[in-house]
């Protein structure tokens, strides 16, 4: 145990000293303590219990915990701008011993699972607030996500890249919850037009938006009891690949409907273990104004759905609140400890 602590100290010194101003004297002391806590009490192990554990109280507690996790960052004292790139360089990582590398992976993995838990168990407004406060959270989440993707037998985004490649040129696709904008990058040579949205912009591909609140694209909802598909939309296809995360995710589907052209396509890929009842999930999506066209559950990890937008009438706020309260048909996604 002692040698583990010594190694952990060395690891943190190596990672923490990179580009770090000398005057940050409080840093190492604090970090050492927190790192110790994290190792002795791995947070990832406690993400259990599914939808029953979702609560407002839970989400604010989670936020507090995530804030504490900031102290675990190898570059703790950096400025906000610097902290967007918290990963040590290849040279720094390659100079670590095997044990140190293992420990760094455990720390990164634990932080990823904490952020993941917060994203799944709170309203998206909480996620927005957290990412604004500390953009490093977004970076750290995506590093962890990329790591997870490597262990999957297939990735829904790769499937969508090959499927959408055969769509007509100039098809307009909105990727809601685009992550690193892998879809947009993959379809770039195909002359399709991809509009990528996620919580934080990368200054190039990604437009910052809370997709569970408002997608900044044109389109209206019906304003009367007459069947309609709204007007002014420009989007042919909406993709939601593993992005229905906040407890208010049904709002994202409502937004997908609003921005899709009449008859437009909605493609959803979700982790198979999240479904409490696939039929209930499908009825919820249909009730927002869609018709399921295809379901692919051949893959053990993911289920993929194709929906088509159909006409509907307007709804009162009360009716919407009822529809939107059914988000529990998707459980939070739990990642195992690496
Ligand atoms: N679709 C990508 C990324 C999946 S990870 C892919 O398959 O590779 C899920 C993504 O959804 C994350 O990038 C997360 O930031 C984003 N996300 C979750 N909730 C969101 C919200 N309310 N608004 C915008 N993006 C959201």
Key terms:
alpha/beta; Arc Repressor Mutant, subunit A; Rossmann fold; seven-stranded mixed beta sheet; 13 helices; binds S-adenosyl-L-homocysteine
**Could you say what the CATH topology of the domain at 156-329 is called?**
Rossmann fold
- Cα(first) to Cα(last) distance is 20 Å
Largest sheet descriptor: 7 strands, mixed
- What bound compounds does this protein have? S-adenosyl-L-homocysteine
Order of strands, widest sheet: 3-2-1-4-5-7-6
- Extract low-pLDDT stretches: 15-59, 70-87
* Count of helix runs: 13
What features would you describe in this structure?
With 338 residues, the chain is an alpha/beta fold. Among the domains are: 60-67 and 98-151, Arc Repressor Mutant, subunit A; 156-329, Vaccinia Virus protein VP39 (Rossmann fold, 3-Layer(aba) Sandwich). It contains 13 helices and seven strands. The protein has helices spanning 2-16, 26-40, 56-69, 80-83, 90-94, 98-121, 124-133, 136-150, 156-164, 182-187, 250-259, 278-287, 317-324; strands at residues 172-176, 193-198, 206-208, 235-241, 260-271, 290-296, 302-309. A seven-stranded mixed β-sheet has the order 3-2-1-4-5-7-6. Helix 1 (2-16) packs across helix 6 and helix 6 packs across helix 8. 37% of the residues are buried. Residues 15-59 and 70-87 have low confidence and may be disordered. The structure holds S-adenosyl-L-homocysteine. Residues 119, 124, 127, 145, 156-157, 177-179, 182, 198-199, 210-212, 241-243, 245-246 line the site of S-adenosyl-L-homocysteine. GO terms for molecular function: rRNA (adenine) methyltransferase activity. Residues 79-97 have a biased composition (Polar residues). Belongs to the methyltransferase superfamily. RRP8 family. Keywords: Methyltransferase, Nucleus, rRNA processing, S-adenosyl-L-methionine, Transferase. It comes from Suillus luteus UH-Slu-Lm8-n1.
């Amino acid at each position: 145990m002692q040698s583990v602590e010594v190694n952990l100290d060395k690891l943190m010194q190596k990672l923490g000293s990179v580009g770090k101003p000398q005057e940050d004297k409080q840093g190492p002391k604090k970090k050492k303590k927190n790192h110790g806590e994290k190792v002795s009490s791995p947070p990832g192990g406690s993400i259990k219990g599914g939808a029953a554990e979702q609560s407002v109280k839970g989400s604010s507690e989670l936020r507090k915990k995530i804030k504490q996790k900031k102290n675990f960052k190898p570059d703790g004292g950096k400025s906000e701008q610097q902290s967007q790139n918290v990963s040590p360089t290849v040279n720094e990582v390659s100079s670590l011993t095997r044990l140190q590398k293992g420990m760094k992976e455990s720390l990164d993995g634990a932080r990823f699972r904490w952020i993941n838990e917060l994203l799944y168990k709170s309203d998206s407004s909480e996620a927005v607030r957290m990412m604004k406060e500390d953009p490093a959270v977004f970076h750290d989440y995506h590093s962890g996500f990329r790591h997870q993707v490597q262990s999957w037998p297939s990735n829904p985004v790769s499937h969508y890249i090959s499927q959408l490649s055969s769509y007509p040129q100039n098809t307009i696709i909105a990727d809601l919850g685009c992550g690193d904008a892998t879809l947009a990058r993959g379809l770039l040579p195909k002359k399709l037009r991809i509009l990528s949205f996620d919580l934080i912009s990368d200054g190039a591909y990604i437009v910052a938006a809370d997709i569970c609140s408002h997608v900044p694209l044109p389109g209206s909802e019906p304003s009367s009891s007459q069947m309609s598909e709204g007007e002014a939309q420009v989007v042919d296809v909406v993709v939601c690949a593993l992005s229905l995360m906040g407890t208010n995710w049904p709002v994202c589907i409502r937004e997908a409907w609003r921005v899709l052209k009449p008859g437009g396509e909605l493609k959803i890929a979700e982790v198979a273990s999240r479904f409490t009842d696939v039929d209930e999930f499908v009825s919820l999506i249909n009730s927002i104004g869609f018709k399921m066209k295809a379901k692919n559950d051949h893959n053990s990890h993911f289920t993929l759905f194709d929906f088509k937008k159909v006409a509907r009438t307007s709804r009162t706020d009360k009716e919407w609140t009822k529809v939107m309260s059914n988000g529990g048909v998707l459980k939070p996604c739990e990642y195992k400890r690496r």
